[in-house]
UniProtKB/TrEMBL annotation:
The chain crosses the membrane at residues 16-36, 48-70, 76-96. Signal peptide: none annotated. This is Lipid-A-disaccharide synthase-like uncharacterized protein. Residues 22-93 form the Lipid A biosynthesis N-terminal domain. It comes from Kaistia dalseonensis. It comes from the Bacteria. Pfam families: LAB_N. Keywords: Membrane, Transmembrane, Transmembrane helix.
Length: 108
């Protein structure tokens, strides 16, 4: 038990700095996307992916990428960078859909 306690202290207390704080904040934002999606789906009683899901994905994923780069973790960097491409692509689709919807609703 003492070894576990020492390890936890080393990981969560001794190495705590602004980068760890950024990592936790980024992870919290990234996690919020699931909370937003869950609440939207519960309200609609069906699976829903609101635009806010992609906003939290981009902000949280971007900050996690910065954190991963600082930590020099190639697995984490590759994962977050690839995810960002997907998140931005989904936002692009949402923007195009809204643009087309506005164009279709314009009366002459």
């Amino acid at each position: 038990m003492s070894q576990l306690s020492n390890w936890l202290h080393s990981v969560f207390v001794q190495q705590f700095d602004v980068w760890i704080l950024l990592g936790f904040a980024a992870q919290a934002l990234f996690t919020m996307r699931f909370v937003v999606q869950w609440i939207a789906s519960e309200r609609a009683r069906r699976s829903v992916v609101p635009a806010a899901f992609w906003t939290f994905s981009i902000v949280g994923g971007g900050l996690l990428l910065v954190y991963a780069i600082y930590r020099k973790d190639p697995v984490f960097i590759a994962g977050q960078a690839a995810g960002l491409v997907i998140y931005f692509r989904n936002v692009w689709f949402i923007l195009l859909e809204r643009k087309h919807a506005r164009a279709g609703n314009v009366t002459t």
